[in-house]
Amino acid sequence: MPTPSCIDLEQTTAALEWQWDGSARSLAIPDPSNTAIRFTIRLDTETSNRAVFELMIPIKFKDQGSASAIYLRISPLFISSFDFSTQTDPSDALKKTFNCSTTCLDFQLDKPIAVLVPNYVNEPVTAARVRSGKILDSLRELSQVTALRIYIRDALLSLDQLVSIRDCISQRKLEPFSGPDYDISRMYSGGGAKATVLAPPVPPSYEKAASLAPPVPPPYERKRSRQDSDPPPNNLSVIWNKLRKLESMMAGAQEPATGTAKLQPELQDQVEKVPSMDQADLTQKLSAENAQLRDQVTRLENKMLALEEKYDSLEKKHEGLEKKHESLERDMLGLQETQNNANEQEDATIIAMQDDIKALGDRTDYIERGKDDEDFAKKIKEDIFNELAARVACG
Questions:
Q1: I need a surface site. Which of 45, 108, 246, 317 has the fewest CB within 10 A?
Q2: Positive or negative, the Cα torsion across 61, 63, 68, 70?
């Protein structure tokens, strides 16, 4: 049984909570959603005064479609304080992971957490889908904070063990474990890991930015409004149509300079008739369009998450069917082997019967040949007489 000075809690289900920009953030469900965030804590103060605190968050990288993970290592050298408490009623964000009371482990750090990713992942680290992208955003925040709360199931660590961890950290006598088991070059099934900095998302390139819709032009303002007897046009399309007509007239004129000179006053009058737009109305309109776009993005993200959940469900069903297929293949192989054994046994039985029949045929032929042979009959009688004489002589 683990003692307060020797703790080994391996890959237990966990959830995370931290503060970012004055609001509480949490991370409880990784990607795929059928997995869990895992927390490992080892402590040995009997022989070496060493410890390790490690989080494993499943995620899907863009560089590899299959599920992998990001590791967060909290070095005991950089833990300034540690405390613990019990929470009997988990928050709504944690109820999907814990439906019972939890133990809260509060870490105060001198330096941010170390982030480890597989060597094959290109930097900057990118996610394969929306859900993994949200997890990556959360980990980007976690890699910059110095206060972290980890939730685990209650009663996994005794009170003496928790007090022992707190005392060791307060005394600043813990160091990280060393050795092959903690070498990052052996992580990820021998592929190795590397420390990385989770950079913010890269802004779009110039080509992509240039392909976007141009910004709304500012309202046309004049220092002094012009009073005109004619009513202003309702929109700019009317003016553009008139401008096109004027340009066509200019193109067909024999005297371009004279025609242009005559059309300049009319063109200026049309442009001056453009109504000035109210800045507040424009701002309100843009805000409404922005809100609509945000709502559309939210709906699309929800649809994407629903599709990903369906994909995960189909993956589970596919795995179940593969297992059933493998089981049927094993059963078929077993039946085939049994049938082969039965066939071999049947062949051996038939061969034995054929040998018996042949032996009986030989004996029958031997008897039939000796039935009419007097010399053979005499020989049999002599053999019988000699056998009886030998038995009588032996008493």
A1: 317
A2: negative
Residue 190's domain comprises 6-200
* 268 and 369, same domain (yes or no): no
pLDDT for residue 249: 67
Sort strands 67-74 and 50-60 into parallel, antiparallel or unpaired.
antiparallel
- Specify the amino acid at residue 286: L
Residue 43 sits in the same domain as residue 145 = yes
Q: Does residue 158 share a domain with residue 60?
A: yes
- Is 341 part of a structural domain of the chain? no
Structure confidence at residue 254 as a pLDDT band (50, 70, 90)? very low
Q: Count H helices and E strands in the chain, helices first.
A: 7, 11
Tokens representing 231? 């009513």
Q: Torsion over CA of 247, 252, 256 and 262, rounded to 10 degrees?
A: -60
User: What is the mean pLDDT of the segment spanning 224-234?
Assistant: 51
Please report how many Cα atoms fall inside a 13 Å half-sphere around the Cα of residue 393, on the Cβ side.
6
Q: Rounded to whole angstroms, how far apart are CA atoms 119 and 221?
A: 58
Are 122 and 182 found together in one domain?
yes
Structure tokens at 342: 């039965």
Contact criterion met (CB below 8 Å) for 116 and 75: no
Q: How many domains does the chain have?
A: 3
Residue 86 has what DSSP assignment?
A: E
